[in-house]
Amino acid sequence: MLSIQNLHVSVEDKAILKGINLDIAPGEVHALMGPNGSGKSSLSYTLMGHPRYQITQGSIFFDGQDIGTLAPDKRAKAGIFLAMQQPLEIEGVKLRDFLRQAYNALYDGTPKQLRLKEFADHFKKQMQLLSIDLPFVERSINVGFSGGEKKRAEMLQLAVLQPKIVILDEIDSGLDIDALKTVCAALNAIKAQNPDMSVLIITHYKRILDYLTVDRVHILQDGRLVRSGGPELAKELESTGYTDAGKA
Length: 248
Known about the structure:
By secondary structure, the protein is of the alpha/beta class. The protein has helices at residues 40-48, 72-78, 95-107, 116-129, 134-137, 147-161, 177-193, 232-240; strands at residues 2-11, 14-24, 29-33, 54-62, 65-66, 80-83, 90-94, 140-141, 165-169, 198-203, 216-221, 224-229.
């Protein structure tokens, strides 16, 4: 699904990522962990095509296609979804209307295109899946939302748009334990109805992994992947911390 090969990335001539190699197969859930400033969010922005992040070496293949020069909207149409750490607030645009337009933009002219009644049924099904009521989707996007509500809105977008891979950029940031459980329950429900969807979770802490089934864990330090392993690697970090994580 996703193959990152010897990826080097710079921002304003400063090297940020320094030779990343990472493969994620369809349906797999990977966690990328590391301290502040290690390059985790930079990798998510690079995968999504942020123009500030310049690929200086290496390649990104998604679904067999080299996407290194594709614009962000083209990557979204290819099936990449980024759930941001701090989603934008958009006054005057209802979440429901935004998702209808976003779905149309992604799937117009494809077999997944839906007529108005079909989309309404699809939308209602996803709201029920995530236990979201109608007043929530009638609100302006993220305006006045709590941290947990913003993350629930991101999960609803994910459920409705059904991408091939979702990148969760520190989606656990600022959440209390109840809100974290709610978000993880939503992600698990979405994953259950989309078993081939791949997930890349970017996080500082192990706690989000307590509520998700993860196939692989990777440790990023100073722009390099220093270690990879199974879910047990995240548990090991609790005792070793990041300082000694790359020594084993």
